[in-house]
Model the fold of this input.
Amino acid sequence: MSAHPLQAACQDALDALVSQTAGVGSAAVVTSDGFEVASVLHADLSVEKLAAMTSSLLALSEAVASEMGMSRCRYVIVDTESGAVVTLRVPTRGHDLLMCVLCGDGVSLGSVLYAARDSARALARRLLLT
Done:
């Protein structure tokens, strides 16, 4: 798959996730080595920093899980006083992609996690078909 269809599929998934999930203001799909593929971000956010931190956060979480003799980390939630960050893998074999979703305070983390996982699975299915 060329870069353009990959970026388009990721952008479509993010646009739908942000527009259809209450409280989600920003989201990005990045590579496991910390580079942006697509994003929907507020102007004050650096996609380069977010991509690098998303990659590092998930890698560190997977290392912790491995050291504890646990299976692969499915997702990471960083919950703060002003909102949360949900990070997860896009479950596809052909591309090593991560999704990062930022949401405001007062939203249901369960709803955001459900929407993010659903979006990541839908993106994986779309990538498999292209």
About this structure: The mean pLDDT is 93. Strands lie at 24-31, 36-40, 75-80, 83-90, 97-104. The CA atoms of residues 54 and 121 lie 18 Å apart.
